[in-house]
Amino acid sequence: MFEGIRRSDWRTRPDAARKLAFELAQRGEVAYWVEPLDRDSASRNRADQRGGAREMLRLRSAKLLDAAYRFVCECRICDRSVNGLRLALGRNVGLPSPLAVHIDETGEVRRAKVVWRRGPIIGVRLYDAAPAGALKASERFALRQRYYAVPN
Fold it and tell me: Is 139 in the same domain as 67?
């Protein structure tokens, strides 16, 4: 059987709440309070770290490149915003600090920085496009091909 005391002023009187909790603990009883879920603040806290709105994507592929614009691994774009991407790596590999992302849909290559990582899922911030002479036309063409990472 549960017994309890319901009061609405515990937040404004934390010393009284602590005192009651201590007395209940002395008697071997449990004291707790339930905070109402404020859905708006929870969603605001998650969104606070984003610079802009994000767009969910399906079946969009990309390739990660190192600072010398050499292939590192395949990835899938989960969602994107104006200045960033959430990517699912094709394999869980170590990533170089300065890197670039080749977006297969548009063919653009943009410099990027890993902002967060949770296993094979990473968040990258996108910067300016790769310099014009960084990749030869043949290298850009090869990156756009379908099975670039599969060895012959």
Answer: yes
From CA 54, how far away is CA 117, in angstroms rounded? 18
Summarize pLDDT for 11-56 with one digit per residue, the tens.
677 777 778 777 877 887 765 655 555 555 555 555 446 666 777 7
- How many structural domains is the chain composed of? 2
SS3 139: helix
The whole domain housing 30 covers 14-47
pTM over 0.70: no
Integer-rounded Cα Rg, in Å, for the chain is 25
User: What pLDDT shows up at residue 117?
Assistant: 92
Give DSSP secondary structure letters for 52-97: S--EEEEEEEEEEE-TT--EEEEEEEEEE-SSEEEEEESS-----S
Q: Could you say which DSSP state residue 135 is in?
A: S
Kindly state whether residue 152 falls inside one of the protein's structural domains: no
Q: Cβ contacts of residue 109 below 8 Å, gap of 6+?
A: 65, 69, 100, 101, 102, 103, 129, 130, 134, 135, 140, 143
Neighbours of 83 (CB within 10 A): 14
